[in-house]
Amino acid sequence: MPQDAYYSPEIETMERSDLDALIDERVRYTVQYAADHSPFYRNWFRENRIDPAKIRVHEDLLNLPVISGKTIRQHQPPVTTEFEFLSTDWNEVFSIQETSGTSGTPKGFFLTWDDWKRYAEKYDRSFVSQGFSDKDRIVVCASYGMNVGANTMTIAAQRIGMGIIPIGKCTFESRILKNYKPTAIVGSVFKLLRLARRLSAEGIKPSDTSINKLVTGGEAFADESRAYLSHVWEVPVYNTYGSTEGTMCGECTRITGLHVPEDLVHLDVYDPQMQSFVKDGDCGRGVLTTLLPVGGKCGMLLINYDTEDTTVVLSRERCGCGRTHMRIVNPQREAETIWLFENPFNRVDIESAVFQHQNMEYLTGEYEAYVCVGDKPGKTVLRVNLECFDPDHCDRHLVEDQFVTRFLKYKSMIAEHYHDQTFTIEFNFTAPRGLDFYTQKGRPKRLVDRRGN
Ligand SMILES: [Zn+2]
C-alpha cells in the first residue's frame, strides 16, 4: 500500500482537540458574519432573542432554531422582494445556483469565487483520499446544471491537475472510453450499472476498459448495490455525499464511512423531535452549518440547516487513512422512509433485498416498490416490480426467498406481521424497460406509499 496522499494534510490529519478548537473559532466567526451580513439571520437572531456573541462553541448551536429548505423559500422571491439569505453585495456574487428541489420553487444559492474555492477544496480532499492524482482523467456524468456538483468537481480536478471529460450524463457513446481512455467515472450507481449493460450489449466488457475506479454520489444506495457495481466493473467504488447547500463528504480508500470536512461544514445529528443531538452511533437527522475561516466572506451561508437526510456518526477517531475528520454513514432521504407496523424502512432497504448476490444472475437491479392497502381491513401489501434480463429464465423462487429474507432481517415488527400474513409481499417480474418509472418523467420513484392516509 503506497503512502496515503492528502490534499490539505495539516487540516485533514489535525488532532481532534485542535480540530475542535478550529471548529469553535469558525462557529463564532460564522455566526457573527451571518448577523452582520445576512438579512435573514439578522432578523432571526432578533426574533429569537439570541445574542450572536453568546454562541461560543459548536454545542451552543443547539440553542438556535433549526431551519429548512422551506425557510429559504419563504425568504426569497416570490414570497419576499429580496433574497434574504444573500450575505454579500451582488457584485461579489460570481455565480447563482439553484437546488434541484423536488418540491416548490427552487432555492436560490449565491456563490462568490471564494465559496467555489472552498467547495472545490472539499472535493479535492475527497478525490485525493480516493487515490486520484494528476495521472487521472475523469468522466463527469453528474449534470452541469444549476446545482453545483459537476462544476465543483471540475474546479477540483483542475486544482489536482486531473483531466476532465465533462459529458454531464452517463449515456455517452463507448468511443469516449475507447478513444480517450479515462481512468474514472463519476455517476450514480444505477447510471453506472446501465452504462455497463450498454457496453456489454456492444460486446465490451466493462472491466476491459481503462476505468480503474468509480465515484458515486447523488443518492443513497445499499452496500449490496455498491458491491454489485464493483463486481461488474471489477474496480473499487467510492461514495460521495454532496449538495448545493455545501455538504461534500467523501469516502477514502478504506471505505469506512464518509469523511466530513469538519473545518468547512459542521454536521450535527438530531433526534426525531429535533430537540437534542443523538449519541455517536445512533441514527438521526443531519443538520449542517457552514463554517467560514476567520476573515472569510461568502455569498450565502446556512446555520442549523435541516438536510432532511438521516445519518449516523460512525467515528471521530483517526481513520486508517490518517484523517481525523469524522466519518458518517451514507445519508438516507427521510422522504424515502416509510413507517410500517412501527418499523421504519427506507428505499435503501428494498434495494439491499433486490441486490442479493444470487439474484443478480437474473435481475438488472432496476426495481420499484409500492406499499398498498390489502384486500382485507388491516392488511398491507408491498408490491415489488423487478426487472429481469429475461423473465422466462429467472429463478423466481430463489429471488423471492432472497428478497424476503433480507428485507425482514432487521425489522422484527414487520416480520411478525409477515408471518401472521397481515403483511404480504407480491412480486412482479418484468422484461427490460418494463417498469412503471420508465414511462414517467424525472428521477425514478422507487418506493411509493399508496396507502393514501
Ligand atoms: Zn479515511
Entry summary:
By secondary structure, the chain is α/β, with parallel strands linked by helices. It has helices spanning 9-12, 16-37, 39-47, 69-74, 113-129, 149-160, 175-180, 189-201, 223-233, 347-354, 396-408, 412-419; strands at residues 95-98, 108-111, 137-140, 163-165, 184-187, 213-216, 237-242, 248-251, 258-259, 265-270, 283-290, 305-315, 327-328, 332-333, 337-340, 343-346, 363-373, 380-388, 423-430, 447-449. Strands 3, 4, 5, 6, 7, 8, 9, 10, 11, 12, 13 and 14 form a 12-stranded mixed beta sheet that branches.
Alpha-beta classification: alpha/beta
- Beta fraction: 15-25%
**Unique ligands:** zinc ion
Number of alpha- plus pi-helical segments = 12
Number of beta-strand segments: 20
Euclidean distance between termini CA atoms:
55 Å
Amount of helix: 25-40%
Q: What Rg, in angstroms, do the CA atoms define?
A: 23 Å
Shape: globular
